[in-house]
Amino acid sequence: MNYDSSVRYLLSLGRELAAPTQATTAKFDLENITVLNERLGRPDRAYPSAHIAGTNGKGSTAAFLESILRHVGFRTGLYTSPHLERINERIRIAGEEISDAAFAEIFTRIHHLIEELLAAGKLRAHPTYFECLTAMAFEAFARARVDFAAFEVGLKSAWAGVSTPPMSSFPPLPSSRPLTSTTKISSAIRFAKSPAKRRASSSPEFP
């Protein structure tokens, strides 16, 4: 697909959380995004990341974190929602929106994998608009070899599409609740100050 066809297809999926085929039976969990992400080869494990959750200020906090890390020399990825003018705004690499060509190429790959998974009965329903874009961000950041990515968690917090297990690259706190923006940023700052952890970040088992 070209860029325009990719955007039109995504828009045909409906609102952020439910595709038209899911509208009356949507169950917000991690099943779809996990299956899709596994089929992609878990690109989210190619780099350390912070998932910013909370009621208000998630996008701003993610943007602040990305900007701080980029300005001290990290190659960064940033995933936020919604967009203001262009869908590309949601996926940024090194401070720049994903290009139309890269957007179309990644979406085309994901679209083919979704069709394959649906045909094999491995997906209950077509992933939502938000899930598709989240998978695209995972893949885009892996291809761009980012050093660190910041993800704004969507609605439903721990059940949002960005929260595929493991929820982040940082060690879990002794709690079953999603980590807050404050703890995520503190972890990220500790990471940024530790050359040893940065060198280890290429490992899927980081840290």
Shape: globular
Number of separate structural domains: 1
Return the CATH architecture: 3-Layer(aba) Sandwich
CATH topology: the name is UDP-N-acetylmuramoyl-L-alanine:D-glutamate ligase
Q: What is the count of helical runs? A: 7
Helical fraction equals: 40-55%
The Cα radius of gyration reads 16 Å
What profile does the largest beta sheet have? Answer: 5 strands, mixed
Widest sheet, order of strands: 1-5-2-3-4
CATH level-four homologous superfamily name = Mur-like, catalytic domain
> Pairing-aware structural class of the strands and helices?
alpha/beta
Count of beta strands: 5
The CATH class label is Alpha Beta
Residue fraction in strands = 5-15%
User: For the terminal residues, how far apart are their CA atoms?
Assistant: 38 Å
How would you describe what is shown here?
With 207 residues, this protein is an alpha/beta fold. It has helices spanning 3-12, 31-40, 58-71, 100-119, 129-143, 181-193, 195-200; strands spanning 49-52, 76-79, 91-93, 96-97, 148-152. It starts with a helix and ends in a 7-residue tail after the last helix. Helix 1 packs across helix 4 (100-119), helix 2 (31-40) crosses helix 4 (100-119) and helix 4 packs across helix 5 (129-143). The protein contains 7 helices and 5 strands. Strands 1-5-2-3-4 form a 5-stranded mixed sheet, sandwiched between helices. It has one domain (3-9, 31-200): Mur-like, catalytic domain (UDP-N-acetylmuramoyl-L-alanine:D-glutamate ligase, 3-Layer(aba) Sandwich). Strand 3 and strand 4 (96-97) form a beta hairpin. Helices cover 43% and strands 9% of the residues. The longest helix has 20 residues, at 100-119.
